Amino acid sequence: MAYGRHVPIIADKYVDKDFGTGVLKISPGHDQNDYLLARKLGLPILNVMNKDGTLNDVAGLYCGLDRFEARRKLWSDLEESGLAVKKEPHTLRVPRSQRGGEIIEPLVSKQWFVTMDSLAEKALKAVENGELNIMPERFEKIYNHWLSNIKDWCISRQLWWGHRLPVWYIVGKDCEEDYIVARSTEEALDKARQKYGKNVEIYQDPDVLDTWFSSALWPFSTLGWPDVSTEDFKRFYPTTMLETGHDILFFWVARMVMMGIEFTGTVPFSNIYLHGLIRDSQGRKMSKTLGNVIDPLDTIKEFGTDALRFSIALGTAGQDLNLSTERLTANKAFTNKLWNAGKFVLQNMPSQGDQSAWESLYAYEVCSSSNICIFVLLFNISGKLGNLKIVAATLTAKITHPFDEDDCLLRLPLPECWVVSKLHILVDVVTTSYDKFFFGDVGREIYDFFWADFADWYIEASKARLNHSEGHSVASVAQAVLLYVFQNILKVLHPFMPFVTEELWQALPNRKEALMVSSWPQTSLPKHANSMKRFENLQALTRAIRNARAEYSVEPAKRISATIVANSDVIQYVSKEKEVLALLSRLDLQNIHFTESPPGDANQSVHLVASEGLEAYLPLADMVDISAEVQRLSKRLSKMQTEHDALVARLRSHKLKSPPDAKLALGFFHWSAHHKQTKHESSSYCIAVHILVKAKLIKDARALLEAILTRAAMESSSVFSVVETLVSSYEVTESTHFVFDLLVQTCAKLRLIDGVMDVVYYLDERGFKLGVISYNTLIHVVEKSGQPGLVWRVYEHMVENRTYPNEVTVRIMVNALCKEGKLQKFVDIVDRMHGKRCSPWVIVNTYLIFGMVEEGRIEDGLVLLKRVLQKNMIPDTVAYSLVVYARVKLGDVEYAWKVFDGMLKRGFNANCFLYTLFIGVYCEEGKIEEANVLMLEMENGGLKAYDETFNHLIVGCSKVGRVEESLKFCEKMIDVGLVPSCLAFNELVEGLCENGDVKLADEMLTLLLDKEFVPDETTYCHLISGYGKKGSFEGVMKLYHEMEYKSLSCSYLILNSLIISLCHCGRLEEAERYLRVMKDRSLSPSGSVYKTLIASYFEKGDKTRADQLYSELVGQGLDLRFLSNLNGQH
C-alpha cells in the first residue's frame, strides 16, 4: 500500500516497545515529536494535507478526500487487503481549538523566527551582575533555566489582529528569496524600485507578530521610542519596578528584558516583583469552562474595593492565592471595623466647630518632651479649655512630637504608653517589610495591631478616660493618643485600602493635605518594654475574670467585686488602672480591693491566677445565686437518677436487640464509670459488643470492649471472666470470631499480658481460631513487654495453626534473636514449617538471611539462600541485596560484586538498593566518576534513585571539593520530590560557604524549608559563619532570629558561631552581649571564640580588653597554642 514509495524501518529509543505492537509509524510533517526525530535521522519531511483539511497529491489515491473520510477509507482498504490484524480502542490526546472546538492538524509551514541565543545571553548577565533583581529570589532559577535552554522564537502568527509583519514581497517573485524589510509601505516601495525598477509591485506579508513580541516592546515603545530624546523616555525609562504574575516570567518579562537591552542598551526595569495567581476557593485556576470565574466588578459591589484589594494583597509573593467568599467577608468586616473606629475617634474629639479645643489638642501633639509636664500642669491649674491656646503659644519655641522621646512616653499612663509603644514597633516592622516588598507580612501586622490591640483593647480602655468625671486632663491625654495612633494606622494601611483610609483622613479636621501625599510615619521611635509587659499582665487579669464570668454564666450587666493579690510593685501599677480594669472586666469599682495576701473569704471565692505574681479572688456569692443554683442542680440530679434506674433495669433484663440499644449500653457504661457508680454484671455489655460487631460498628465495639477490660483490670477481676461471658453471651457466628480477635487485640493494647496466652488456648480449645492480625499484634506487644519466652509461645502456636507472620513480625523476631544470639531457634522453626510442607512466605526467608547477615554469619546466609533456591522457593531481590550489603559492610567489596553478578545471572534485576550501596562505596572512596557512571546506568535502566542515593553523591562531591556537582544533585533531588538528609545538606552548605556562595546556600535552605526539611544547628552554624566571613551583619542576625523561632538559639555551637561571625562583621558590642549570654547560661565559650575576640580587639587597638579576655582564657585552662598566629606583640 506504499504505492512504490520506499518506507524505511528505523530503531530508536523514542518508541515504547511495550505499547501495542512495539512498532510506530511516524509522520514528520504532521507531528512535532516525529518532526524532531526525522530531523535527527535525516528522514524526508512530507506534507500530505492542504490548509482546508483535504489531502494533496502526496497522498496518492486519497488525494482530494477530506481528512476524516480519508482515514476511514484507509482503514477499510487495510481490512479488504488482509493487512489489518486487529482493532483496539485507545484514548488519544487530540488538540482542539479553544473557541470552535475543531480538531487541530499540525502542518509544516514557513514562518519567521528570531535567533535568541545572543539576546538570552545578555539577559542572563543582567541578573548575574545584579542589574536586575527578581523577587522572590527562587524564580531566578526558573528565569535562568528558560534562558539557558532557549530555542529560536517563531514570531509570525496567522491571525486577524495584531501588528503586521514589516515584510513586503515582490509580485511575481519567489517569496522565500525576494522580500523587503522596511518601516513603512513607502520605504519598502522605494527599496523595491531601487532594486527591481519603477514598475515593481509589492504586497505586505499577511501574518502578524506574536502577541508576546509586541508586548515585549511595551516598556519603551510607549514612551516615544525610537525617538529616545522625548521627555517621557528620558523620565520613565528605565523604570524601577515591574509587577506581574509569576506564570508569565518567561513569556513576557524575560522577553521585555531581552528587547530592552537589545534596542536601548539597558534593562527596562531594575526590580521584578512576581505575585501569585488568584485561584478559586478550592485552589483551581479560574476558567469559563469550570464556571468558577470571580468577576472583580461584582465582588467590588458586594464587598467593596478596599476589602478586595486587602484580600489579594495579603498573599505571599510568588504564592498562588485561593480567593474565597469567607476571606472577602472577613476583610469587609475589617473595613467596617476601621470605619467604626474612625467614627468613635471623631465622636470623642472636640466638635469640629470648637476651633480653640482643636488647637489645644494639636498643641498637645506638638509639645516638646521637656515641656509636656508643664503643659499638663498648666492645663490642670487653668481647668479651662480656652486657656490652652495661651499655654500652647508659650511652648512654640521647642516644637517636637511628645512621643518622640523616652521621657514623654514614660509619663503617659500605662494603656497609653503600651499602645504608643506597640504602634512604634508596628511602624518599624511594616516599614522594613515595605522596603523588602513583603506586602503580605505588612497587611497581617497592621490587621493584628488594629484589631487585636487598638480596637479590642485600647479603644475600650480609653472609654474609662473619656468618661472620667474629674475634669478634662485625663480625657485630653486619651484624645491625643487616640488621634495619634489612629492617624498613623491610616498612613501605614493606606497603600492597601486607599479609599476608606482617605475618607477617614479627610474627615479629621484641619487636614491640610491628602493622605496619599502626607509624610510617612517616623521610624525608630521609643518603645517601653516594661510598660508593655505590665499592660500584658493587666490583659491577662482581665481575660481571667472574663472567662470566670462566662464559666459561671454571670449576666453581662452585673458588676461583681474582686480582690487582687500581688506584690507591692504590681499593685502599684495595677491599682492606678482600677477604672480600666473595672470597665473591661465588669467589676464593681467600689469593691475592688488590692492586697498582698489572700482575703479571708478565699475558700468561698473563685481563685484565678492571671500571671506569675498576679492573682484574683472573685466571691462566689457575687456571681451566682447559691440557693437557686442548689435548686437547679438538685432537679438535674433527680432527672439523671431516674434515667439511671431505667437504664439499669433495661440492662439487667438483657433486652438489647439492635445497634442503637448497644450504643446506649456503651454510653451508659462510660457514664457509670465517670460518675463512679457501682459495678454491674457484664453480660449485657458483652451482648452489646456482639451487636456492634454484627452491625459493623467496630470502633464502638472496640471502645466498649476496652472499657470492659479496663474495668475488669481496675477491679482485679480476671480477664477470663470477660472471655467466659463473651463465649456464653451470644450464639457462635462469623462475627463471633472477629469479636475474639478484637478481644485479644484489645488485651494487647491495654498491656493485659498476664494470662493472655491462657486466653488464647482457652479460645483455641473451643474452636475459636484467631486471625493473623491478633497473633501479630500480640507478638508486638509481648516483645515490648520484655518477655521473649512468651513471644515464642505465641509464635509456635501461630505456626502450629498454619498462620504465618507478617513482615513486621518476622523482623521483630529476627532482631530480637540477633541481639540474644539465638537465631538458630528461628531457623529450626522454619525447618519445621518446611517439614510440615507449609509454604512460608518469601519474606520469612528474606529476613532470616537478614538476621544471619546482622549476626555476621554470612556463609550461613549464603547456604540458606542456596537451599531456598534448590527448593524452588525463590526469594525476592532483597535477600540477595542483604548478602551484598553484608559483604560491603565487612569491607569485601570484590566478593559483593561477585554475588551481584550471580544475582543478575539468575534473572534478577538490579534494584535501587544495590546501586545505592555501590554508589555509596565509591563516594566514600572519593571515586566520583565511577559513582556517576552507576547513577547514569541506574537512570537508563528506568530505576528511580532513592533519597539515600542522592545523599551519597551530595556528600561525596562536597568532600572532594566538587561543590557545583553536589549542588546539581541536590537540585535534581528536589525536582523529583525528594529532600536531602541533614548530613548531606550540611556538607553542601559547608562547601558553598567555603566558596563564598553563602547567599546561594541560604536560598537553598529557604527552598527546602517549604518542603518540610528540618535543618539542625550545624546547618545554621555553617550559614552564620558564611555570612560572618562575608561581613554581612544583616545575614547573620536574620539566621539567628530564625533559630530563635525554632528554639535553637541557646545551642552551644550556635552561640559560638554567632560571636565569631559578629566579630568578622565588626560588631564587637553585639559579640560581647552574646558572650555574656553564654556565661549566663553556664556555657563556656570555645577557644576559637576567645581567639577571634582577642584578634578583633587587637585590630581595633583595644589592648586592655584583649588582655582581659586573655586572662579569662588562662583561667579556664584552655590550650593556648591556638593563639600562636596572633599579633606577635601579644
UniProtKB/TrEMBL annotation:
GO CC term (a single one): cytosol
GO molecular function: aminoacyl-tRNA deacylase activity; ATP binding; valine-tRNA ligase activity
Enzyme Commission numbers on file: 6.1.1.9
Residue ranges occupied by any Aminoacyl-tRNA synthetase class Ia domain in the UniProt entry: 86-324
PPR repeats: 771-805, 806-840, 876-910, 911-945, 946-980, 981-1015, 1016-1050, 1051-1085
KW Nucleus (keyword) present: no
Keyword annotations from UniProtKB, A to Z: Aminoacyl-tRNA synthetase, ATP-binding, Coiled coil, Ligase, Nucleotide-binding, Protein biosynthesis, Repeat
Catalysis: reaction(s): tRNA(Val) + L-valine + ATP = L-valyl-tRNA(Val) + AMP + diphosphate
Coiled coil segments of this chain: 623-650
GO BP term (any one): valyl-tRNA aminoacylation
Record domain Leucyl-tRNA synthetase editing: where: 4-53
Keyword Methyltransferase on entry: no
Methionyl/Valyl/Leucyl/Isoleucyl-tRNA synthetase anticodon-binding domain segment(s): 418-562
NCBIfam families per record: PPR
Protein name per Swiss-Prot or TrEMBL: valine--tRNA ligase
